[in-house]
Design goal:
Radius of gyration: 13 Å
Number of helices: 0
Shape: globular
Order of helices and strands: EEEEEEEEEEE
Length: 122
């Protein structure tokens, strides 16, 4: 079992940057692949990025590739999402999630945080 708590969201101007963090409890964090998802008002929750349990493999949605970077520190039980060159369309609640599967589908993720709001103004 793992519990997740996101932080780092906020209001930023277009072109700015934010670093989101997701702190996990439990000694099993290092066994999970970790994903970031986001949900804008009136839209479905969508995949953003995933990193494998060791941190050696990553995968991104086309919409964020080249602008966002996912990373993790297993010693600190934390996964990060560095978001650069932010656009108004990046505005959403961002969630981290844990899965034993390598997946971009939210249905494959068993544990979720409560989310952190990111708002990008134009």
């Amino acid at each position: 079992q793992v519990q997740l708590v996101e932080s780092g969201g906020g209001l930023v101007q277009a072109g700015g940057s934010l670093r989101l963090s997701c702190a996990a409890s439990g000694r099993t964090f290092r066994n999970y692949n970790m994903g970031w998802f986001r949900q804008a008002p009136g839209k479905e929750r969508e995949f953003v990025a995933v990193i494998d349990s060791s941190g050696s493999s990553t995968y991104y949605a086309n919409s964020v590739k080249g602008r966002f970077t996912i990373s993790r520190d297993n010693a600190k039980n934390t996964v990060y999402l560095q978001a650069n060159s932010l656009k108004p369309e990046d505005t959403a609640v961002y969630y981290c999630a844990a899965s034993f599967l390598w997946s971009t589908s939210r249905r494959d993720y068993d544990h979720w945080g409560q989310g952190t709001q990111v708002t990008v103004s134009s």
